[in-house]
Every structure is written in C-alpha cells, then in structure tokens.
Write a structure and sequence with these properties.
By secondary structure, this protein is of the alpha+beta class. The chain contains 12 helices and 10 strands. It binds zinc ion.
C-alpha cells in the first residue's frame, strides 16, 4: 500500500531516486523504496501487491521461474567455477589455519548439543524429504561426487592424514611471518568475540594422581606439569579452590585462582601470555592489596625446573 500520494501528485516532482513510503501488504511493515526500483518491480508479473524486501524475496524465490533459473545457474560452468574456487579457498584456509577447522567443528558440535535446534533441523529435513522423495538419492550422489568426509572416509580419522596436517602445521609455524600473521588473526578473532563460549587452548582437563593419594583435576598440560613439580618438590597446595572478588571498572567480578601454595603464602596461576590480561590482574591486586598472586608464564615454569 502506498503511504504517500507522491506518485500521483502533480505538484511535487518525483525523480528517479525519490524515496516512496509504503506499507507492506503481506507483513504490514512500513518501508521506503526508491522510485526507480518500484517502477522496475511493478513491471514484474508477480507484483500484484506492495511487498517489502523480505516478503518480495519470499514471493520471488517460490516462483517456478526462479527455481528454474537457480537450477540453470547451479549447473552452469560459471557457478561450477565459483564453487570450485570457494572450496579450494576453504581447503587452503584449513591447511593454513587448522585451528579454524577445530573451532568450526567445536561450534558445530555445540550447536548439535542444542536439543531444540536439533529437533528443528531434523523436522525441516524430514519435511523436505517428504516433499521431494528424490532428495536422498541426489544428496548421496553429490556427496559421492565431491568425495565428502563422511563416515569412515573422514580423512581426519585416519592417522596418516592427521600426521600430515600436524606436520604441515609444524612446518608452517617455523616461518615467523606466518606465525605472526596467524597470531594476529587469532587475536583479532578473539577480540571480535568469535570464540565466546568456546574454550580454546587450555580446555583439556587432566587428572593427576598425587603421591598423597589424592586425585587432582587440572586444566591443560602446563598445569599438569606444574602440579607434578609441586608434588616432586614436596610443596603443599590447594588446587582450583577459592575465589577472589574484585572490581573491574564498576563491575564486580570473581577470580578463581589455579593454586594456593602454602609455603609461598600465595596464589599461583599458570598462564599463557596469550590469555593473560594485565588489566584484570591489576584490578585484582588493587581490590585485594594483601593478597599475593604469582603469575607463572612459560619461562617462569621453565626457570623453576618444571618439565614442560
Ligand atoms: Zn513484508
């Protein structure tokens, strides 16, 4: 529905780029559209009402002509070339940055753990299969054609492939330029919140059987090496207990230190520089002037004689 009489007005000029106000006849949303686009759309035989962009897309995407042209495009040499290029770009990316693949697979796994989403997907897949019984066959053919990673064919499951990737990765990290570029990219992704909710890095938990008979759960190989060192040196500690409240800006936060070392009368935190936030630890110190926290970076652990 036209909301201004601009189009029919004789006193005001309507130009090529004049924006006209509409109300969508499908969803009721108000929208503005350039005059020249409106003219173009009106020539379309499917334009029987006034559609906002998303309602128009829905309308067009469901027409026979669109489906046919999509199919034609999909099978065209141009589209094939585009797909090929995109796929090889992705492959190169994965070889260059194996972490990308890992983090993607983590995200997918996480999504899969979402029961509601899983049900929704399975429902829509079922519906699609009911609508078109040839889907299964077509999917199978196209998967075979593309040599997809399914079932036992999953290359990463094969030790050899895994080794290859790991070697390629090691080689690549010998190049300081690549290392720097990679680190920059990951840092940026980190800052952009790409890894929010995904535990990257020190995510693996290990159990350590202490000579005192207790079993301690520690996170990551550095903590594991450190706890072993504490044990070997007869240093008593508490592990993953306690909470230090602090203020960061005007926010109340809690810090959960890794260890309390009795002899040192101090908390100790094994940290990779990458995950270390000076701002955070400054805030902790400021809020708790009498509390001692020793941050142990890799070089500190090595100095102590921890076997990393
Ligand atoms: Zn609409």
């Amino acid at each position: 529905m036209l909301l201004d009489d601009l189009v029919n007005s004789k006193t005001r000029k309507i130009g090529y780029k004049t924006k006209i106000k509409f109300k969508c006849d499908i969803c009721g949303e108000n929208y503005l559209r350039h005059n020249y686009i409106y003219r173009k759309m009106k020539k379309n035989k499917y334009y029987d009402k006034d559609y906002c962009f998303s309602c128009w897309m829905k309308k067009i995407n469901s027409t026979k002509e669109f489906k046919k042209s999509l199919k034609n495009y999909w099978n065209s040499d141009e589209a094939k070339e585009v797909r090929k290029r995109a796929s090889s770009r992705m492959k190169n990316k994965y070889v260059k940055y194996p972490e990308l693949k890992e983090s993607l697979s983590k995200t997918l796994k996480k999504r899969y753990e979402d029961k509601k989403l899983r049900e929704k997907i399975s429902k829509s897949v079922k519906l699609a299969h009911e609508k078109d019984s040839s889907i299964r066959k077509r999917i199978s053919i196209s998967l075979k054609k593309s040599g997809a990673n399914i079932g036992d064919k999953n290359g990463m499951k094969k030790l050899e492939a895994r080794k290859k990737v790991s070697e390629a990765r090691k080689k690549m990290f010998l190049n300081p330029k690549i290392r720097e570029e990679y680190s920059k990219k990951i840092k940026k992704a980190w800052e952009d919140g790409k890894f929010d909710g995904v535990r990257v890095g020190q995510c693996k938990w290990y159990e350590y059987e202490h000579s005192n008979g207790n079993i301690y759960k520690v996170q990551g190989t550095w903590e594991l090496a450190f706890i072993k060192w504490l044990d070997d040196n007869g240093l008593e500690f508490r592990c993953h207990r306690g909470r230090i409240p602090y203020k960061l800006g005007d926010k109340n936060k809690n810090y959960y230190p890794d260890f309390w070392i009795y002899k040192w009368k101090s908390y100790a935190d094994v940290k990779c520089r990458y995950f270390y936030s000076e701002e955070k630890f400054d805030a902790i110190k400021k809020s708790n002037p009498s509390v001692k926290v020793i941050i142990l970076f890799k070089e500190d652990l090595i100095k102590l004689g921890v076997n990393l």
